[in-house]
Amino acid sequence: METTVDEISKKLILKIDNTFDKMVHAITRFEEGQYNTVPFEGSWTAGQVVQHIIMSVAELPDKKTQAPQRSYDEKIDSIEKLFLDFGIKMESPEFIIPEYQTYDKTGQIMELKNIQHRHVETIRDTDLSALCVDFEFPTFGYLTRFEWFSFFVFHTQRHTVQVNNIYQYLSKQGL
Questions:
Q1: What pLDDT was estimated at residue 2?
Q2: Domain range summary for the chain, segments of one domain joined by +
């Protein structure tokens, strides 16, 4: 039995909602003082991690699209495998490295919820199989809207684990 476009959209919306809700929950656990505390040398603060997510998943690069010459979900497994491999440390591209500053936890939560809402609307209203040709994803090339949204899910899941680890570390240190 073939999956319908509507079923694919509904499943993706559930993943987006679940992923963003888990990130928001992770953030709400922090006391204000903890949120912008560097847990250990070489680490970002929780606020910086969240800012990195906001910067990297806020918009789809889909001003220009075209019909793909491949399956709309061809690169999903490779993207998931890479971003959910917690054994590797990744380096962020310069353009999505957050500044070291004091971040407003409440403001960032509101921004994440706005992004989540926009993504859900886009999933409902657009062709997920369209190939986005505004930006070529490093090592993977051009992605479909479906693949971009899936990357947003995997990337946010990866960093939710990081935010939870920062919280646990700071809590154990009594900070």
A1: 56
A2: 5-60+75-125+153-172
